[in-house]
């Protein structure tokens, strides 16, 4: 079972790198803003996994990894919204000096 999970992780990582490298640079920011909802789901999943690890006895490693997953997923969500805000700011009308 563990070998299968590692296999799925490696294939997903390889596929992610290949897909992102094929996306034109003009589409990166809109795609990032669209994936913020998925990143939000990742935060909920990390919280759930950490809660399950907390219910186990001697689950220190699970708690540490769960906490790191929550931190990294939260950074991803915040960064995505910051990039989206910056992108939308590029389309605002700039007021010139009179």
Descriptive overview:
This protein is mainly α and 98 residues long. It has helices at residues 2-21, 25-34, 36-54, 60-90.
List the helices and strands and how they pair.
Blueprint: H1 2-21, H2 25-34, H3 36-54, H4 60-90
Salient structural properties:
98 residues; mainly alpha; 4 helices
Order of helices and strands: HHHH
The shape is flat
Helical content class: over 70%
Q: Radius of gyration from the CA trace? A: 19 Å
What's the helix count? Answer: 4
Query: Structural class from helices and strands?
Result: mainly alpha
- Whole-Å distance between the termini? 69 Å
Strand content: under 5%
Low-confidence regions: none
Instruction: Provide mean pLDDT, rounded.
Output: 81
**Biggest β-sheet: count, sense, barrel?**
none
Number-wise, the strands total: 0
Would you kindly provide a brief summary of this structure?
This protein has four helices and no strands.
């Amino acid at each position: 079972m563990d070998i299968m999970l590692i296999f799925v992780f490696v294939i997903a990582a390889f596929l992610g790198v290949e897909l992102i490298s094929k996306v034109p640079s003009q589409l990166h920011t809109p795609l990032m803003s669209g994936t913020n909802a998925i990143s939000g789901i990742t935060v909920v999943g990390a919280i759930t996994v950490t809660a399950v690890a907390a219910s186990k006895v001697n689950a220190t490693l699970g708690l540490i990894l769960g906490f790191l997953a929550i931190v990294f997923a939260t950074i991803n969500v915040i960064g995505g919204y910051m990039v989206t805000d910056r992108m939308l700011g590029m389309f605002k009308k700039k007021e010139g000096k009179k």
